[in-house]
Amino acid sequence: MPQNTVSDTPAYRRIQLALQKRIEAGELQPGDAVPSERELARNYEVSLMTARHALAEMEREGLVDRRRGAGTFVALPKIHFNRLASFTEQMASRGLPARSRILCASVVEGEQEAAARLSVPPHSRLVKIERLRQSGEQPFAVESCYLPAEEFVGLLSLPLERRSLFSTLERDYGIELAYSDEEVDATAASARTAELLTIHAGSPVLRIRQAIFSTQSKPTVYVIGLYRCDRHTLMIRRFRR
Amino acid sequence: MPQNTVSDTPAYRRIQLALQKRIEAGELQPGDAVPSERELARNYEVSLMTARHALAEMEREGLVDRRRGAGTFVALPKIHFNRLASFTEQMASRGLPARSRILCASVVEGEQEAAARLSVPPHSRLVKIERLRQSGEQPFAVESCYLPAEEFVGLLSLPLERRSLFSTLERDYGIELAYSDEEVDATAASARTAELLTIHAGSPVLRIRQAIFSTQSKPTVYVIGLYRCDRHTLMIRRFRR
DNA sequence: AAGTGGTCTAGACCACGGC
DNA sequence: CCGTGGTCTAGACCACTTC
After folding, report:
1. E strand intervals along B52-172
2. CB-based contact B234 A177, cutoff 8 Å
3. Secondary structure tally for chain A: helices H, strands E
4. Model-wide pTM > 0.90
5. Which nucleotides in chain C lie closer than 7 A to a protein CB?
6. Can you name the residues that pair with A225 across neighbouring β-strands?
7. What's the domain range around A108?
8. B60 burial class (0-12, 13-18, 19+ CB within 10 angstroms)?
């Protein structure tokens, strides 16, 4: 019998989607047992291997834990480490109020470092957006984003103040961001940076230079961020293998 | 027939190991086609599903690329981002000479922050090893490691100067390290730190506080590192999904 | 002892790629 | 067209956990 007469969604995928739905709906709580392979095989009228495939993949994605002899259980809510998220998203995930003030938004030329990171000629026209990031009333970062002006015509006339740059790129320009390579070091705050962040000039600040790539591995945004360290630390997780 | 009469290594694992060996030996170069599922099934006298399992897992690990209709190919040498590596390993991967000088190696008590990060009572005895990390003659980091003294008796009498702490833990204590959670910020160098790093007191340095976990998710080592920023940046990669 | 996940068989049909 | 990987079947035995 062909595995798939009606929809073209594979059977193992249908099982996964059904389970995910039950997890998201709260019907299956973290720690709860998920139906066993044999149970899924009966209920969905598939073979054991297919039910097994569904669960094994969900384990790799971190959605469930599988314990031999015991069963398959809904995993604790996933903590996203090393996740590329917009400022707005990061703040939201911590339940903090996010605000940002645009300090400048214009087209610039001759910013050679940014151009190099975006793999465009050194004197290309770039959209530059400089923002002061705040949590409530407290400033904690100055970020300068650069994008190739040629590919983002009209960007500066969009409501940047109100919508996250990420969602603008993803919705208005159909760009799917995939990952970023970030270079982190420490530097002393310049007089201007210090004033914006309301710290003393020369105080150590965290500097993150971030090249953000699209799903086609094309460098799309370059960001230089300077962060106050007294109320912000960068969290990362690294794996041995 | 039982799948496994002689060794207790699963058949799919034996196939993986054989292929890895051929890749490491250079017999199979990046881009080369790996034997197909059917070929492996014949050669290793296993079913298609088993050969398939071997290749699918190798693809997830990034060792090979699989293309439907085309075949399975040795992947480009993997670039390890966000990889938990010892100082020695990091330096070796960049082809730099690694040296480190032990500044102090003793058992301490009452280091409450370290104890907390290791999930042991606040006044537990901890092994503390402070090292100056150098590339050639140039110092670039001061690192203090803490480990629960109870679990690592005899550690201080081992040749720490000569062998990496990671390999000592993995070989002499049978500990498998799995991942680390790191908190990164910037701070001003103290007089002592500045002297060790041959920079000016008050210069910004990168501070990385790292809790290293074993495969059982047990906190095993806590490290506080202070890094010169003029010849060192931290590179990380983050993913959108 | 009963149930679970881990491994495995010996086939099958399909969609896709390259020639 | 033929070979590839992707999905799937209807079973099997084993090691393990829980009771």
Report:
1. 64-67, 71-74, 98-109, 125-135, 138-148
2. no
3. 7, 10
4. no
5. 2-18
6. A143, A208
7. 78-235
8. exposed
Burial label for B206, CB within 10 Å (0-12, 13-18, 19+), is: buried
What one-letter code names the amino acid at B136?
A: G
Contact B206 A229 (CB under 8 A): no
Decide: B118 and B108 in contact? Cβ < 8 Å.
no
CA dihedral B6, B12, B18, B24 (to 10 degrees): -140
- Any A CB within 8 A of B182 CB: yes
CA/C1' separation B215–D16 (Å): 20
Question: How far away is chain A from the Cα of B184, in angstroms, using its nearest Cα?
Answer: 5
pLDDT digits (tens, 9 = 90+) for B102-136: 999 999 999 999 999 999 999 999 999 999 999 88
Q: Is A84 on the interface with B (CB under 8 A)?
A: yes
Rounded CA-CA distance A165/A86 in Å is 8
- The answer on pLDDT for B4 being more than 50 is no
Across the beta sheet with A71-74, the strand order is A33-34, A71-74, A64-67
The strand order across the sheet containing B204-214 reads A234-239, B177-188, B204-214, B219-228, B138-148, B125-135, B98-109
Q: Side chain identity at B160, as an amino acid letter?
A: L
Cβ–Cβ < 8 Å for A214, A134: no
d(CA B209, CA A235): 10
Total number of domains constituting chain A = 2
Q: Is B151 helix (H, G, I), strand (E, B) or coil?
A: helix
In a domain, A219, yes or no: yes
> What integer pLDDT is reported at residue B7 of this predicted model?
60
A22: CB partners within 8 A, 6+ apart: A28
Measuring CA to CA, how many Å separate B173 from each of A29, B155, B165? 38, 9, 11
Span of A39-53, A126-140, B155-169, B215-229 with lowest mean pLDDT: B155-169
A237 has a chain B CB within 8 A of its CB? yes
CATH of the domain at A55: 1.10.10.10
- What is the Cα gyration radius of chain B? 23
Final residue belonging to a domain, choices A33, A50, A74: A74
Question: Residue B52 has which token pair?
Answer: 């398939």
Query: Are both B92 and B52 inside the same structural domain?
Result: no
Collect all residues of chain B within an 8 Å Cβ-Cβ radius of residue A204: 186-188, 204-205
Q: Using DSSP, state whether A69 is helix, strand or coil.
A: coil
The SS3 assignment for A114 reads: helix
